[in-house]
């Protein structure tokens, strides 16, 4: 066996162990892809190897498979365990797994969308399948034109790979019409001209409305007149079960008249599909095998099943996940939109919003969002998340790769009285590592000449240590040299604070999570940073450089 075959064999055995001795080649490839990212480019080759090796493994009985696992000393890796913890295996995998993310273009993506797209993406990786993006733009009232572009940008930011072909439902009206006609001809759909109230009254009593019994010919006539009808004058209904225990499912609306202008279609069409109609038709035609959606869509899945039945189509596997409750997070797209319009928010990336772009601007990492969503998984029970949780995950990532600097908020100048001579020409060069755990990154250098800025809030009577420099006593706003050693500062429990030289510093503003601004001064080493870089301001917190102005740097605060 060559190296690749060996890897396939080991993953195959583990997969067999999980599934009563029968491994699945797709799952084996997926498992390899998720633990050996370096092999992703060889997915195809691995797929071929997996087909033959899995066949051999499945012929070994379970007991001998166990012995092989023990003999070879195969262990599941951390990463694999984690994936399994969050995401259960997909049911009924038979051939290529095709999934989709189907947002409405009503705004950029927020963390609630991540709830849908992340597990979708993780599953297609696991099964070496395909993830499609379908833009559900069949309700002009819920379209925000810039969102078309924003959604793709956000998906990219999240590092999620989607199939190259983006499907726009607005391109597919002729297809929806074709199936509407087909259903009418099959007597599975009818044009209903009853008033809403009348239909509801009858439906609630499980009675058919008069339109339900019209002939196919009469229906086709109405269907042809449909585009000329007024808003609300008629709808196309899909026949279901009039005694279904949920009245909402009884003969649901598939098409209606819409008079608003569509940003991509203008007024080309008046007959518009309802969500359930276009979704089910597209899921089938796009060969979606597994539909992952929130449990608020349970009744919709139920509605859609009737359509699959009428058209004799195979129902995809529906997976419903629980609600995501977000404490202290402004989330609703419509509220965000209103706030942006009336100037409450600065834009879609206002730090108070739960959009992915707002989070990214603050230095929240895509990986944080992905890890969080995988931890929550796709269970039916509701989950809650909070900023605190997000910050905790993000801190773990940032702590390692960000460098440390001094930022002094609300700076006050102090001149340290001392019989030692500190002066411009006789300044101390203070070196402090960019990161104490990664000394190879080098040092920053600050010059100390006895005159420094410290944060206003630290100017209190008592002993202070200026980091890596000297210890000073503050009394009545006056600073006096006390001692030099760190040990002494520690013994006397001095507060250890950051500082910046008075003659060498840079203006900085930090936009906080409530959009308030903290002004201050940074040490000069931040001059080398690029927009987008994230730093850790000592004693202050993590922040992302958002903008470099001529005499000022603007950061967005991430978290402590
Ligand atoms: N566009 C729908 C939504 O975002 C899709 C629902 C579905 O997953 O079928 O709610």
List its salient traits:
single chain, 560 residues, alpha/beta, Rossmann fold, 4 domains, 7-stranded mixed β-sheet, 17 helices, 35% helix, binds glutamic acid
Describe this structure in words.
The protein is of the alpha/beta class and 560 residues long. The protein folds into 4 domains: 3-72; 94-326, HUPs (Rossmann fold, 3-Layer(aba) Sandwich), CATH 3.40.50; 327-400, Glutamyl-trna Synthetase, Domain 2 (Glutamyl-tRNA Synthetase, domain 2, Orthogonal Bundle); 402-560, Ribosomal Protein L25, Chain P, CATH 2.40.240. Helix content is 35%, strand content 23%. The strands form 7 sheets. It has a 7-stranded mixed β-sheet, covered by helices on one side. A hairpin with a 2-residue loop joins strand 26 and strand 27 (552-559). Helix 1 (3-18) packs across helix 2 and helix 6 (111-126) packs across helix 15 (366-376). Residues 102-104, 136, 279, 293, 297 line the site of glutamic acid (GLU).
Short description:
The protein is α/β, with parallel strands linked by helices and 560 residues long.
């Amino acid at each position: 066996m060559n190296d690749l075959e060996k890897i396939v064999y080991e993953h195959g055995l583990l997969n067999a162990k999980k599934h009563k001795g029968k491994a699945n080649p797709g799952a084996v490839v997926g498992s390899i892809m998720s633990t050996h990212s370096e092999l992703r480019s060889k997915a195809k080759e691995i797929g071929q190897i997996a087909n033959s090796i899995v066949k051999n493994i499945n012929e070994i009985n379970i007991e001998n498979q166990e012995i092989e696992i023990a003999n070879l000393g195969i262990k599941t890796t951390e990463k694999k365990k984690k994936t399994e913890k969050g995401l259960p295996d997909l049911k009924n995998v038979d051939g290529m797994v095709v999934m989709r993310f189907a947002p409405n273009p009503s705004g950029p993506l927020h963390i609630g969308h991540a709830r849908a797209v992340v597990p979708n993406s993780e599953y297609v990786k696991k099964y070496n399948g395909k993830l499609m993006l379908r833009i559900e733009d069949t309700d002009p009232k819920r379209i925000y034109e810039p969102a078309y572009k924003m959604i793709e940008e956000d998906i990219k930011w999240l590092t999620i790979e989607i199939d190259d072909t983006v499907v726009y439902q607005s391109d597919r009206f002729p297809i929806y019409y074709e199936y509407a006609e087909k259903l009418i001809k099959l007597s599975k759909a009818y044009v209903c001209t009853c008033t809403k109230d009348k239909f509801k009254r009858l439906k609630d009593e499980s009675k058919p409305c008069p339109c339900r019994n019209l002939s196919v010919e009469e229906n086709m006539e109405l269907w042809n007149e449909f585009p000329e009808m007024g808003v609300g004058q008629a709808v196309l209904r899909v026949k279901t079960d009039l005694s279904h225990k949920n009245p909402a499912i009884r003969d649901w609306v598939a098409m209606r008249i819409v008079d608003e202008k569509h940003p991509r279609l203008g007024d080309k069409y008046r007959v518009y599909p309802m969500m359930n109609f276009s979704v089910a038709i597209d899921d089938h035609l796009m060969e979606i095998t597994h539909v992952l959606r929130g449990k608020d869509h349970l009744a919709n899945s139920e509605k859609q099943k009737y359509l699959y039945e009428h058209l004799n189509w195979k129902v995809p596997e529906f997976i419903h996940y629980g609600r995501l409750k977000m404490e202290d997070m402004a989330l609703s797209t419509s509220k965000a939109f209103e706030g942006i319009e009336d100037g409450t928010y600065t834009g879609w990336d206002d730090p108070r919003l739960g959009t992915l772009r707002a989070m990214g601007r603050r230095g929240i990492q895509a990986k944080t969002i992905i890890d969080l969503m995988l931890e929550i998984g796709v269970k039916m029970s509701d989950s809650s998340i909070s900023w605190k949780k997000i910050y905790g995950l993000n801190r773990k990532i940032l702590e390692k790769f960000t460098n440390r600097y001094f930022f002094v908020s609300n700076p006050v100048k102090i001149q340290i009285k001392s019989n030692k001579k500190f002066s411009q020409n006789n300044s101390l060069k203070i070196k402090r590592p960019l990161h104490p755990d990664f000394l190879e990154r080098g040092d920053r250098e600050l010059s100390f000449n006895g005159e420094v800025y410290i944060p206003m809030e630290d100017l209190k009577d008592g002993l202070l240590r200026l980091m890596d420099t000297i210890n000073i006593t503050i009394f009545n706003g006056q600073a006096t040299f006390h001692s030099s050693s760190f040990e002494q500062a520690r013994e006397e429990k001095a507060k250890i604070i950051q500082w910046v030289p008075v003659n060498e510093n840079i203006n900085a503003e930090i936009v906080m999570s409530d959009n308030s601004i903290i002004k201050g001064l940074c040490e000069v080493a931040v001059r080398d940073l690029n927009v987008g870089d994230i730093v850790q301001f000592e004693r202050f917190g993590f922040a992302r450089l958002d903008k470099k102005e001529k005499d000022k740097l603007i950061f967005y605060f991430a978290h402590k």
